[in-house]
Fold each of these.
Amino acid sequence: MKRRDFIQLAGMGAGAMMLPMDGFTQIVDPSRMLDPLLDASQKKVLADVALNTTKSLGATYTDVRIGRYLNQFVITREKKVQNIVNTESYGVGIRVIANGTWGFAASNNVTTEGMKKTAERAVAIAKANSKFQKEPVKLAATPSYGEVSWKTPQTKNGFEVPVKEKVDLLLAANAKALEKGANFVNSQMFLVNEQKYFASSEGSYIDQDIYRIFPNFAVTMIDRASGQFKNRPAFAAPMGMGYEYMDGKAEDKILLPGGVTTYNKSYDMIEDAGFAAEQAKQMIAAKSVEPGKYDLVLEPSHLWLTIHESVGHPTELDRVLGYEANYAGTSFLTLDKWQTKKFNFGSKQVNFVADKTQVGSLGAVGYDDEGVKCKSWDLIKDGILVNYQAIRDQVGIIGQSESHGCCYSQSWADVQFQRMANVSLQPGKEQLTPAQMIAGVEKGVYIVKDSSFSIDQQRYNFQFGGVLFFEIKNGKIEGMLKDVAYQANSQEFWNSCAQVCDARDYRVPGAFNDGKGQPGQINAVSHGSATARFNGVNVINTARTI
Amino acid sequence: MAILSKEEARKILEKALSYSKADGCSVSLNGTDRGNIRYARNSVSTAGENTNVVLGVSSNFGKKLGTATINEFDDASLEKVVRRSEELAQLAPENPEFMDALPQQTYGGESKTWSEATAKITPEYRAQAAADSIGPAAAKDVTSAGYLEDSRSFSAILNNKGLFAYNKETGVDFTVTMRTNDGTGSGWAARSVNDVSKLNAATTSKIAIDKALQSRNAKALEPGKYTVILEASAAADLVRLMLNMNARQADEGRSFLSKKGGGTKVGEKLVDERVNIYTDPWSDEVPSSPWQNDGQARKKMDIIKNGVVSGLFYDRYWATQKNVAPVPFPSNAIMEGGTASLEDMIKDTAKGVLVTRFWYIRPVDPQTLLFTGLTRDGTFYIENGKIKYPIKNFRFNESPIIMLNNLETLGKAERAVTSEGQLSLFIPNMKIRDFTFSSLSDAV
C-alpha cells in the first residue's frame, strides 16, 4: 500500500525515504520532460501495427496503451535540499482476448518491431492461459470514439516551472515554520504527468495528457521537558491540477471554526507552514480526551479518508466478487444486499456519487484505460446501496450493459483493472455552514485533517485518528483535544450521519497513491464532501506510557 | 540477460566508470527476473513474467550530486548515461549531507541468498502450485485465492575509490487465503523462502483450508485485555514495527527511543529480559546481502540484548555528526525463541485467544509506538488448555514495546511472513498477557 510510503516520507527523516520507482522507470534530465517524443499520428501508426498483428493471430479484441509516465520529486528538510528526482517510464502494454481469455504483454521497445513482438507475446499468453479459463470473457459494448483527445484543465504546467522555483518555495515554507518555532520540517513537492495513448480494435484512438500535483510537509514540534513531540502535516490536498494550485489565492482560503485556516482550489504553502508550527505547539499542550460517545463534526480534509475506506473500497465490484480476497480483502456489500434494493447503507442524508469527470479531482480523465468515456453514477442514493464500481468485463455480472469507466493501470507495464473512481458525499440540500452545525452539538468533537486509519478486510470495523481535534460543548468550541481516535462499523456510522453542510463547504481532498492488487498497483483518487455530523460515535483515548 | 555473473557485471561497470570526469562516481547494476501467478474464485486470474536490468550512475562535483539511469549497455549508451549524471550534478544544489564514496570494504564471506532450485522455476511450476491449492480447496467446498511470486536478481556496485561488491539472490513468496463457501470461515497461510525446495504449496494450502473450516460460525467475545498466543506471523507484524531504530530520529527527539530532557534509550531496558533480537546477513533462515546499496558491509549485531536497547542505526552522515561509526540498517531480524510448540503453549493456557495473523496495521502514536489493526483469517478462544471455538475478529490498539513487556512464553522460532513490510524475520510464536483488544469486527 504505497500511500503509506508517502506518509512515512512526509513524517520522518531520510531513513524512511522511499520513492515510488519500479524497474522500468528511468531517471532523466528535467528538460527531457518537456520533449513530446511522438505525436498522436505517429503513435497511431505504431498502435495499428499491434492491432493488425493481434488480429492476424486470431485475437477477438485488442487494446494498445502507449504510455509515458513522468514524475518529479523535490525533497527538502529545514534549510537543505535533500533530493531532486525526475523520472520517466515509457513503453507499451498490449492486452488481447484470444480463445475468450485475456492475455497481456508489455515492452519498453516502442518501435514497429517492438509492437509486433509484444503483440505476438500477448496473444501467445492469452492462448496459454485459456486452458485455465472456465468462462469466456464478456465485454460490455462501448462506442468507438475515433480519434479524440483529453487534457487535464490547467493554466500552469508544473513541469515548465523551473525546479529552482519549487526549491525556493519549499525552503521558504520551511523557514516560516522554523521562524514560528518548529524544531524540524520536512517538505516535498510531487508532480505527475501521464501521457497515455489508447487504441483499440473497436476503432477508438484516444490521446490523453494528465497532470497531478501534491505539495506536502511535516512540521515537528518537540517539548524537550516532557519528551512529547507532534507532527502537523500540510493542509494541502493532492489535486488533478497544474502548478496554479500553488497560487494560494485569497478566495481559496477558508477560515474554519476554531480559527483554523484551510484551503480549497489553491494552496498557500508558506502561510500554512507558519500555522502548522503554531498548531503543533497547541497539539502538545491540548487536553487528553475523555473516552466515550460523542457527536463528531468531520471536516472534508478529514472525512475524505473515512469515505475512501468505508465507502470507496467496499463498493468495488472485484472485491465483492472475491478477486481481491488474498490481499486487500472482500466486501460487506455483497450482491444479495444490493439485490434487495433496500439495503440501508446510511441515513437519508447519505448520497454517494462515483465520478471520473470532476474538474480538479485526482480521478478526472476523459476516458478510462479501456477506452470508455468517463461519467458519474450513483452508488448510494438516499442511504440505499444502488450500484457498484465496475468495468467492461464485470458489469454483465450485475446485469448492466454499460461499463462505469473506472479501469486504470499505473503504467504501460501493468495490466489495467478496476480501480476506484472519485467517490464523494453529496452536499446537503439545506443551507448549513460548519459553524451552524457546531452550534447544534451538545457534546462533540470537531476533527480537521486525516491521520491514522485502519479498517478490516470486509470494511465493517474501522478506526480513524486526525490532526486537530476541538472539543464542542453546548454548541461552542471549548479548546483543543489530543489522543483522539474514533471506532465504528461502516453501516452504523453512515446511518448516524445526521447533517451534511451545503455545497458552499464542499471540497475535494484525496489519496495520491492508493494500493491494490498483486503485484501491487497505485491509483490516485479524490473524495469530495462538505462538513458532516455523525451522532453518538465511540471515541477512544490513545495515550499510553512506555 | 537479467542475471549477470560477477565478472560480466564488473566488466560493464568498469567500462561505464572509465567515462567519468567528475570528482566522484559510483555505478550500480541491478537486474531482476520475476514471475508470478495469481488466482481467485478457484481459478487462475493472471500470470506473468518480467525482466529488467538497470544501470545507475551517481556523479558528484564537490557536494553536488546527479544520478541518471539507463537500460542499454553498449559503449555509447554507457558514455551517455555518465555524461547525463554529470550534467545533472552540475545543475544540482549542494547537498550538505552528501558523503564521499567508500573505499573497498571487507564483507564477511559469501552470501547465502541464491538457490539454483529457485532460479529454475518455470511457468509450469507456478501453474502446478496454483492447482495444488485450488484442487484441495474445491474438494472441501472452500474457495481459494492466492499469489505466488518468484524472483532472481543480482546487484553490483563499483566506485572510483575502488569499491566493488556483487550479490545475487533468489526468493519465493507464496500467500493463500481460503474462504468457506458459506462465507463464515476464512483461513490464511504463507511462506517466504530463498530456496523453493523448502516450499510446498499443497501443505501450506492445507493449513489455510483447515483454518477456514475450523473458523466457521465464530462467536463474539467481549473486547478487553486478553492473554494471546500470537502465531509467528502475528508476532512478526508487531515486532517489525519497533526495529526502525533510527539514531537520527532518536537524537532529534522524535522517536519512541528519545528520552525526556534529551538523549536516547540506548543501554536502557526497553522490554522483557528474555527478548533477544539481532540481525545477521549470514542467517541460514533469513539470509540477506552482506552489503547495502552504498557498499557498506552489513554485520551480525545485537539490536535488543536481554531486553536492553543495544544500539541504533546510523547513516553515514549522521555518524559523522555524532562522531561514531556508521551502522547499516538491518536487512533481517532474528528473535531468539524457546522450545515450546504452539500446541504446548495452548495446553498451558487457562483462558486466551489464538491469533493467526494481523491485518491493516497503522500507527496511532509514534511517541509510544501505539498501533491499531485487526485479527484476520483464524482467531480462536482457548480455555483450559484447549481450543474451544472460533471467535469473531478483534481490533487491537497495542504497542510492541508494551506487548514485549507483557511476555509470558516464547515458542519455537520460524521464518514469518508479515502482512506488509520488506524485512525478513525469523521469530517465535509467543504468549503475551494483557493484550488490548478494543472492539469487535464482523469481518470474516
Amino acid sequence: MSRYDVIVVGAGSVGVPTALAMAEAGLKVAVIDKYPSPGQGENKHAIGGIRATHSDAAKILTCVRSLEIFSTWENKRGDDIEWIRGGYCFPVYRDIEENALKSLLPIQKEHGLDIDFVGPDRIQELIPGIEKEGLIGGTFSPGDGSASPLLSVNAMYRAAVSAGAEFLFKHEVKRIHLSGGKVNGVDTPAGRMEADVVVDAAGPYSPELCRSVGVDLPVVPDSHEGAITEPVKRFFEPMVVDLRPAPGSKNYYFYQNKHGQVVFCITPDPPIVGTDHRETSVFLPQVARRMLFILPRLRHIRVRRVWRGLYPMTPDGSPLVGWNRKVEGLLHATGMCGQGYMIGPGIGEVIARLVTGSSTHEDGPILAGFDPYRQFLGAEALK
Amino acid sequence: MVQKRIDDHPILSPKDEREVRFSWNGKEMTGLDGEMISSALIANDIHVFGHHEKDNSPQGIFCANGQCSQCLVLVNGRPLKACMTPLCGGMDVRSVDGLPSIPEDTDKAKPLDTPLNEVDVLIIGGGPAGLSASIELGERGVDVLLIDDKDRLGGKLVLQTHKFFGSVEDSYAGTRGYEIGKILSEKVRALESVEVWLETTAVGVFSDGIVGAVKGSEYRLIRPKKLLVATGAREKMLSFPGNTLPGVYGAGAFQTLVNRDLVKCSERVLIVGGGNVGLIAGYHAIQAGIGVVALVEALPQVGGYKVHADKLRRLGVPILTRHTVLAAHGSDKVGSVTIAGLDDSWKVVPGTERTFEVDTILIAVGLSEVNEFYLKANEWGIDVYSAGDAQEIAEASAAMFTGKIEGMRICSALGLDVGEIPAEWEEKAIILKSKPGPVREWIPPEREEGVFPIFHCTQEVPCNPCTSVCPVGAIRTENDSITGLPYMPDLSKCIGCLSCVAICPGLAATVVDYRKDAKNPTVTLPYEIWRKEVEPGTKVPVSDRDGAVLGRFPVEKVIANPKYPGTLMVQVKLPRDAAKRAVGIWVQEENREPSELYEKEPLPDSAVICRCERVTAGEIRSAIRSGVRDMNQLKALTRAGMGACGSKTCRVMIHRIFREEGIDVSEVTDRTDRPLFVEVPMGALAGERRDGIE
C-alpha cells in the first residue's frame, strides 16, 4: 500500500487545482472521486463566471489570484480553456440595488479592482438592446471574465497528473480513517489509502464525509438550475447579473461563452434544499420570463439544455477553509456556496502553502475570512 | 427554372397547393404554400443551406425530421429548422453561414403564464403505435391527449407508398402505408375523448411529472396520469470521410422528401444498407424516377425481406453484398462515392474500390429507438409505457400491435375493466416483430395447363393477405401459419381473378394462364412503376425473381384492380419455359458503370462522428487513447454530443469507436442525457405567443 502526503477527497472545482498546487509544491498527492472523471460532480454544473469583485477581502484576494491563473493558463500551459475577459455588469433599476452595489465600491477599490458605477448609456453599450425603461446604470468590472469549467478542470487535471498527482476515480470515500485521533488516510471500496493529511474538497458531500470522524460541518446544499442555448454571433460581452428579486426567485445571471452560447442560471427563493439534481418544469418559464424583461432580444434564441447543480451553502455565504481543530490532519476546503469554480485555483495555492507550512502574509486575510471556526454573523452582501 | 418535383408518380398524386414566392439569399424563388422550407429549397435545386461555424463545411438536409438542426436557415432573420418550418409567401430565407445572428429586437417582453394541461393519458407520437393505442383508449372513453410534431397524423406511415405485410384483419396487409395512416387517423379523429395536437413537439420530461411541449410557437406543460411514448425510431449514421456533405442522409429523410413532399431531391443515389428500410427506399427512388446505382450491404446477405430485395433486383438495381462505402466526395455536395468489397473479417479487399458518380448517398444501416422520453420518465417515477419502435425496432405492422397492447395495459392501469389482454395479441406482436426466416428453394408447380398463381415467395415472413383475398379460398400458407410460404393445394380451383397478384405486398405473385395458348401462356406480372413504359404493344424486358432478364416481350394488356389501383397488372405472353420464372419488368436499363476517376481516400480519421459540433473520429480516438472512458468527459473535451441534437446520432458511433479501440463497453460510463431534447426559443419558454406579439 502506498502512502501519500495528502489525500484529496473530490476531483472537482476545488480538489483538482488544490491537487495541482500541492503536487507542484512537491507533495505526494492522491485524489479520490466517486465519479468516473474530473469535474463530474458540481464543476460541470457551473456556468463559468469568474470575478474578483466580491464584497469581502478573503474572496477578493482569492479570486484575484484565480483570475490570474485562468487568464494566463493558455499562455503558460498551452490548453485553451475558453477564457474571455468580458467583465461583469450589474445593471440597476432600483435605488436599493444601486445603494447596495455602491456601498461595495470602497472595499473593491481598496483592493485595486477595476470597477465603477456607470450610467445607463454605458450599460446600453455593454448590453445592446437592454431594457432602457427605468435603467439607472450599474457596475461594470472589465477585469472579470469567464472560462469553460469543463475544459479548465480537465486542463488542470492533466497538469496535476503531469506534476505527479494520482487520481482514483469511481471510488467513493466511505470514511476518513483515524489513528490515535489523527488522520491516517481514507477507506475506499478498494481498500485503505494512507496519508497524514486529508483535504475535504467534497463540496455538497462534505457533511457526510466529515460525519465519519464526528465533525459536524455547517454546510447545507441547495440546488440551482442552469441552462445553455444554441450558439449565435456574439452580441454582448459581460456576465449580466440582475440582483432584483421576483416571486419565486432572487437574482439571475447570464453571459455568452466563447462559442456564442448564452449560459444562464437563477437563484430560487426559497432555496431548494437538498441534493436533488433532477430537472423540473418550473425553471425555464421562470428564468426565461425574467431574462426577456431585461433583454427582449433573447426571445429569438433557442434554449438547448438544462441541468441542476448544487451549492454547498454555509451560514454566511463564504467558504470553509482551514484545519480542523479536533481532528488533526483534516483540512476543510468546502462550502464554496456555488463559487467553487472561481475560488478553486486561488484557494488551491493557499491550501498547498498551508499544508507545506509556508503560508504567506497575503494568505492571512484569506484564511481568516474563510476560517471554519469564524462567527457566522451576517450573510455576504451579494448572496 | 424548372422545379425538381415529382409530377408523375405511379402511386401518389401530384401536390395541388398553390405556388408562393419567397426569396433565398435575396433571390426570388417559388415554392408550394405550406410545404417545409427545406423541400421548397430542394425543389429549387438548393442543397447547401449553410456552412458550419467550426470548419465552414457545407450543411443541408439530414434528418428531415426536426431532430438534428443541420438544416438551420434564417427565416425573416430568425434561425429556424428548414425541415419543420412551413413556407409562407414573401418569406425571406437565408443561409446560415457560420453562427447566425439573432435579430435586434427591443419590443418589450409580453410573457404569459405557461398553460398546464392535466390529462389522463398523454401519447407522444401519432404514428402507427400512438394511433393504435389512441383507438384502444378512445374507444373506452379514456381522456387522451395525442401530440405529434408534424402537421398530420400517421408518423412514418405517411412516407410509405408500398403495400404492407402482415395479415389483412390485423394490420391492413396489402394496403399501402400512407393509406393505413389515413384510416387510423380518421378512426382517432372520430373519437370524442381523444384530443389531437399537431405541430406539437415534446421537448422534455421533468421530475415533477410534467412533460414540456411546444405547440406551434407556444410552450405548454402537460401533466399526464399515464404517459405513452410512441416516438418511433431514428436512423443510425455511418462514419466515413465526407459523411457530412449535403446529399448524405438517411433513407427516412429521403422518403420524406420524395414520398411526402414529392420533391425530386436526386438524380442518382447509392444506398448503403440492405435492411427493409434501404431496400424499400431503393424501390421508392425508382418510383420517383431517381436512378439507383447500387445498394451495398456489408453482410453476406441482405437483412431485409427477400421479396423486397427481389423487387429491387428485378428493376435492375445491383445489390452488392459484402460491400461498404469508403468515402463520399464533393466540394459543396456529394458528387461521387467510393465503395469497396469486404472480406470475411470486414476488411476492405484491396483493388475492389470503385467510384460512382452520384448526388446522394442514402444511409440505411439500422434504426435506434427514440427512447429518451421513456428513460427520463422512468427515472422520475412517472407511470410510463412505450410502444412501436420506441419500444423495439420492428415493422410498422408490429407497432400497430404493440400500440394496441400498451393501450389496453394503460386502460387496466387506470382501473378500467378491460379484461385480460388476449394472449394471441402478444403472440401476433412477437410474430410481426420476427426477423425473416431462411431462404428456401423455389419449387414451381409442375402443371402446365389451365390457370393458377405462382408464388415467388421463398422466405418465411409474417404475411398472408393472399390467403384472405382469394375469393374461392384456394390459397393457403404452410401449416396455416402467417409466416408459412403460400401455395395453392388444388391448382384447378383457381378462377384467374388476379386478386393475389394485386394484393401481394412483395409483388411476388404472378398468374400463368395456359388456357388460350398452352405453348405461349399469358403471364400476369405485378408492376408499380410508370404506366407509360408498359403500354400495350411495348416490348418490355421481363425478369425472373433474381433480376435476370428472360427476354423482351410485348405487353398484351394492362389491368388494374380498383381496390389496389397502384399495382398494375401487366400481361405478357411468354414461351412456356420462361412463363413460370417471369415475375418482374426491368426499368432501370441504363448502364451504371463506375466513373473513371478513382478518388484518393482521405484518412478515415477525418470521418465526422458528431455532426452538430463537427467532431471527427480521429479526435475521439485520440481522446480514448489518452485514457478517456467517461462519455461525459469525452463531451467536455471534444464537445462530441454537446450540439443541438444531444448526441442522438453520434452516441452509437462513439460506442463503436470504443469497441474498435478494444475497450470493453462495460468500462465506459455512458453520457448523461438532459432535457431539452429539442431546442426551444426563449420567447416561447417565457410564455410569449408569437402571433400575439406583432
